[in-house]
Design brief:
- It contains eight helices and 14 strands.
- By secondary structure, the protein is α/β, with parallel strands linked by helices.
- It has a single domain, classed as 4-Layer Sandwich (Purple Acid Phosphatase, chain A, domain 2).
- The longest helix is centred in the middle third of the chain and has 13 residues, at 151-163.
- The radius of gyration is 18 Å and the shape is globular.
- The chain binds fe (ii) ion.
- Fe (ii) ion is lined by residues 8, 34, 62-64, 174, 225.
């Protein structure tokens, strides 16, 4: 089974991507969200371009999707007044985004089953719209749409999805789990401050811990949000494998369309699953072919 993971898009998606993935041997696409630039304007137009993909595809809303600038700034500054004031715009914007995505499955606190020949996996979509760090971002909307009012609620909700699974699980979320490092270049480490810090989601980490205690088989944990390029220079680690064999993938290479050897290259991460084990490669595809990058390189 080959799952193509597309990290934070931030407007970097074009006709080449549509043709490439439609002709690709991939069995499904996972979009990690963040379609627009700084403002939410243009989100639905990008979504309509993603909707031209003819393969099964799943979309995880990011912290830039379906939210206005006012709301975004409220979250960034933890200004409760702004968070409340602009919250009611989110539901109609998310509904509109979902419509624009067409046949792409709009995920969040949801379970989906994927079967290719004799390989079968459960896809578990964890918390949508995560901004990372210690807060439950966009809490009024999460409460209204999903009945989730706290990080504890969120962990319970994700755990309940794991409980429904009886085989190999691939879990994805806009931001990755806490507990994987507090260095600035850690897979979901904070590069906005000099001292760094773990910017992963504690609810997802807790749900994963509980799933393991129930012997659930977590093949891969996928997210984006914390861009590969670090503030102040350098690149973060985007892949690791833990002692249980779980593969962790941060797919947020931004911009995902870049120039390599004088040619435009389009980034995605190829996740191949065979007998419940994950193999991961970074792919930079262009008109003349593609480059593969092993996570160890
Ligand atoms: Fe993000």
């Amino acid at each position: 089974m080959y799952i193509a993971i597309i990290g934070d898009i931030h407007k970097a998606w074009d006709d080449f991507d549509v043709a490439y993935f439609n002709q690709s041997s991939c069995d499904a696409l996972l979009f990690m969200g963040d379609l627009p630039g700084r403002s939410h304007r243009g989100t639905d137009a990008v979504a309509a371009e993603l909707a031209r993909v003819t393969k099964p595809a799943y979309f995880m809303p990011g912290n830039h999707d379906g939210v206005t600038i006012g709301q975004f700034m409220g979250e960034l500054r933890q200004n409760e007044k702004w968070i409340q004031k602009y919250a009611r715009r989110q539901a109609p914007l998310c509904d509109s985004l979902q419509t624009a995505l067409g046949d792409i499955v709009y995920t969040g606190y949801s379970r989906h089953d994927l079967e290719v020949s004799d390989e079968r996996i459960h896809l578990v979509a964890a918390r949508p719209h995560s901004m990372g760090g210690a807060t439950l971002a966009f809490a009024p909307y999460l409460k209204e749409r999903y009945g989730v009012a706290s990080l504890e609620d969120s962990a319970d909700r994700i755990e309940a999805l794991f409980d429904e699974c009886d085989g190999p699980i691939v879990v994805f979320s806009h931001n990755g789990p806490a507990g994987l490092g507090a260095e600035r270049d850690a897979i979901w480490g904070c590069d906005f401050t000099r001292e760094g810090g773990d910017f992963g989601d504690s609810d997802l980490a807790e749900a994963l811990r509980r799933a393991r205690s129930k012997n659930k088989q977590i093949v891969a944990v996928i997210a984006g949000h914390m861009h590969h390029r670090l503030k102040g220079g350098g690149e973060r680690r985007w892949f690791l494998r833990d002692e249980h064999g779980t593969a962790y993938i941060n797919a947020a290479r931004v911009p995902r369309i870049l120039r390599l050897n004088g040619e435009r290259r389009h980034h995605h991460v190829a996740l191949r699953i065979e007998n419940g084990t994950a193999a991961v490669t970074e792919i930079l595809a262009g008109e003349s072919g593609f480059d593969l990058r092993n996570p160890a390189e």
